[in-house]
Amino acid sequence: MKTPILFGLNAKPTPLLRVFLAVLPFAIAIAAYVSASNARLAENSADKLLPSASQMTKAIDRAAFKEDRRTGDYLLWKDTASSLKRLLTGVGIAAFLGLLLGLNMGLFKSLAASLSPFITVVSMVPPLAILPILFIAFGVGEFGKIVLIFLGTFPIITRDIFLATKKIPREQIVKAQTLGASELAIVYRIVLPQIFPRLLETVRLSLGAAWLFLIAAEAIASTDGLGYRIFLVRRYLSMDMIIPYVIWITCIGFFMDYLLKQLIKRKYKWYLAAED
Amino acid sequence: MAMSNEQSILHIEDVYKSYGDKLILDNIDLSVNKGEFCTLVGPSGCGKSTLLRLILGQEKADHGALTINGHAAGYPDTERGIVFQRYSLYPHLTVLENVLLGKHLSKRRWYLPWVASQASKDEAMHYLDVLRLSAAANKYPHELSGGMQQRVAIAQALIMKPPVLLMDEPFGALDPDTREELQLFLLELWDKEKLTIFFVTHDLEEACFLGSRMLVLSQYYADDRGEVARGAKIVSDYALPSVALSTEIKTSSVFQELIGSVRQQGFDPSVLQHVRDFNLEHPDSFQTLLDQERSG
Fold first, then answer.
1. CA B251 – CA A114 distance, rounded (Å)
2. Does A151 share its domain with A29?
3. Cα separations in angstroms, A256 against A34, A191, A200, A205, A212
4. Are residues A99 and A188 in the same domain?
């Protein structure tokens, strides 16, 4: 009996074939774009809809390596720094407070009784729907944007940490009590270190939502940022700028996800072992 | 009626416990002396673990008195050590850190970094040595076999020198060979460290083999209360010859006879002994029956 390498339930692709299969969809997408772009540019060399690679390279060069004529900034880097600052501040505060609240709710039943329904309802509010409220209440500066990212991620992180904390076996807490632990020691020295890798996982999953809220906030009211730039140059149909920016945002998102994943893999082997 | 004396580590009198409408424990009386290896068996669902949780302080009795070392038993504390069947270890700590944990939790502030003193480390390593775990000191629980994990859990409890060590089916999840190995191990440890152990198991053979005293908890008995919902009582209380450091005794006829009679008295729903006829031969045994239970 021969094991098939490609087709069927029993197929076991070789490592080399796996790499090929993984690269294939990217290659197809790029090839499709390039041929469509070439076709359009051949018909009309001033076409802006599907810029060629060289046009995009020029746009990147302008944005990343040349000072902006008007402000003297390197736009791509300035936009990246502003966006990351907002994103990381918002997600960071949400992660910190979500961890504290979820952890305590998971251990103290009265706190859970009081706040669990509230958090559940709040997590149902579509954050983008209250964006106008945020801008009215906090202005269109940094604070409003950070609050949007915070509101978009905090309830989910809190709920996830709350549920993970509740899953900690009762035996562990009783055991800690018989070892002389105070309540605070149980919360912060027994349960918190066990929940922490879970927080990293939750943050990983929340980053997608955080990017969405960041770009939405920047699109509506901002003077810099990756989302701001995309929506600004949209007015001039600058696809040569928009596409590289989108690819850049994707790369940053991918990199952050990879970083968190590696952190969990390296530092929290016991956590991954327990998940299996 | 025997009362608690100086030697008594654990004293339980007139304890009742029900969940909702269902009465589980029905007037439990028990006094356990220092140095005893007390095993508790009974049919499944009779309330063995419930009784253990009451002693541990994880749950509260509906009625009755429960004292540990002379104090009324409250929430779990350092007066009682515990080894559960599972989840006794903290997965994020190494074996050594797990054993040291009690030293830190009981003596150090929670918000300061914990650095173990050399004395504590030596003590932890002593227990790891005793339990033949020194080589695994820096491993994490998930890297250990089930038997090793339970040994770590025992070391983790012992470092606190609890007046009484409670064990809730600690070997229940182990394969038969490992189980026997740990039984011998525990007997040796009990003898060497002069422990007081309260050991819950559903395995009759294990209870007979380990215990210097064996209690049988059962809901299968009769009394003169008429048609009432009954909970479980201690129906037998045996004094057993202590320390058989060999498993050969398990095949002896005396041992097998004992198991047979306990099985009949405690585990057979069709054999109902009257409360007056319970086999409470252990010298520390006592029984506070209500008038209506023995009026006939």
1. 59
2. no
3. 29, 26, 11, 11, 15
4. yes
- Look at phi and psi of residue B287 and say left if phi exceeds 0, alpha if psi is from -120 to 50, else beta: beta
- Which residue matches tokens 């999953």? A205
B92:A189 CB<8 A: no
For residues A230 and A219, is the Cβ–Cβ distance under 8 A? yes
Write down the pLDDT at residue A268: 94
Residue A20, H or E segment:
helix A15-43
- Domain membership of residue A90 (yes or no) is yes
Partners of residue B111 in chain A, C-beta under 8 Å: 184, 188
A44 and A166 in a single domain? The answer is no
Which ipTM value was assigned to this complex? 0.89
pLDDT of residue A157: 96
Chain A to chain B Cβ contacts (< 8 Å): 84
DSSP B237-278: EEE------SGGGGGSHHHHHHHHHHIIIII-TT--EEGGG-
Assign A38 to helix, strand or coil.
Answer: helix
User: Domains in chain B, ordered, with CATH?
Assistant: 8-79+163-294 (3.40.50.300), 90-161 (no CATH)
List the structure tokens of A31.
Answer: 């090839």
**A185: chain B residues, CB-CB within 8 Å:** 105, 110
Which residues form the domain of A36?
Answer: 15-50
With contact defined as beta carbons under 8 Å apart, do B250 and B261 qualify?
no
Same domain, A151 and A226: yes
> What confidence score (pLDDT) does residue B1 get?
40
pLDDT beneath 50: ranges in chain A: none
